[in-house]
Design goal:
Number of strands: 11
Order of helices and strands: EHEHEHHEEHEEHHEEEEH
CATH class: Alpha Beta
Distance between the termini: 25 Å
Low-confidence stretches: 38-55
Shape: globular
Mean pLDDT: 77
Strand order of the largest sheet: 3-2-1-4-7-6-8
Largest sheet: 7 strands, mixed
Structural class: alpha/beta
């Protein structure tokens, strides 16, 4: 069984995100969502924007959606003190951990990241952890439930210390060892780091889809697409991705 936990600012990616995961994963999969639009406040220096999207259950595969949380349940004050979206993963995992098996696979994944080809058991069994090389660990992270429990036992989790990025806490896992040979991987976890093989600017995407020109998003080894800016534009057209991926 695969448990996929995702924190998504709004519903704009729902249709393609769910369809791609259900299309390309052969194992049984359950979805857990944290949805909201309070990130407007966090990412625009306190200036509340009029946002064209509101949280919606439209296009959700209700038979596979196990649970959904909302930012509105937390409040903007709490969120503004925890700007890294990954803290939501800690809330979600804490609530489901007693109902899932240690041998199950767990995926922490952004709403604009999804497969573009089949992901079989060989993909999920590669190593202790799987991530997108060159991308932040919180964007796409795969492991076993038992292994994540081991991480938590070492006093590591997704909630960043104030003023820091969640990745700062995970340097102890050795995720930056390729860039910093002196980094000590003190827990001896084994990593699979999927390589970026096609930049998003090489995919023929219209310029209207970009909010900056120096994207580092794209497709990793013809397996995983990650936009890496899919919630940054106030108005965002997803039709190109629905028709071309």
């Amino acid at each position: 069984m695969i448990h996929l936990l995702s924190a998504q600012a709004d519903q704009r990616w729902f249709k393609i995100w769910f369809s791609q995961w259900e299309k390309y994963v052969s194992d049984d999969i359950k979805f857990y969502l944290f949805v909201g639009n309070d990130w407007d406040y966090v990412y625009n220096q306190g200036k509340k924007l009029k946002y064209p999207f509101e949280p919606s259950l439209e296009n959700l595969p209700k038979e596979n959606l196990e649970k959904i949380w909302y930012d509105s349940d937390l409040g903007s004050d709490f969120i503004s003190q925890n700007p890294a979206h990954s803290f939501r993963y800690d809330i979600m995992f804490d609530e489901i951990v007693n109902d899932i098996d240690d041998d199950d696979t767990i995926i922490f994944c952004d709403g604009d990241a999804f497969p573009t080809s089949n992901l079989d058991n060989n993909f999920f069994e590669q190593n202790d952890f799987i991530m997108l090389n060159g991308s932040d660990i919180v964007n796409f992270f795969v492991t076993k439930v038992s292994k994540w429990k081991d991480v938590l036992s070492n006093e590591l989790n997704w909630t960043a210390n104030y003023g820091e990025n969640p990745s700062d806490k995970f340097t102890k896992l050795g995720i930056f060892e390729d860039n910093n040979p002196t980094q000590e991987n003190i827990f001896n976890y084994k990593w699979t780091k999927i390589k970026l093989t096609k930049k998003i600017t090489e995919m023929g995407i219209p310029n209207s889809e970009f909010y900056v020109n120096d994207y580092i998003g794209g497709i990793w080894e013809d397996k995983i697409f990650h936009h890496m800016g899919g919630y940054q534009n106030q108005v965002h057209n997803i039709k190109w991705f629905l028709n071309n991926l």
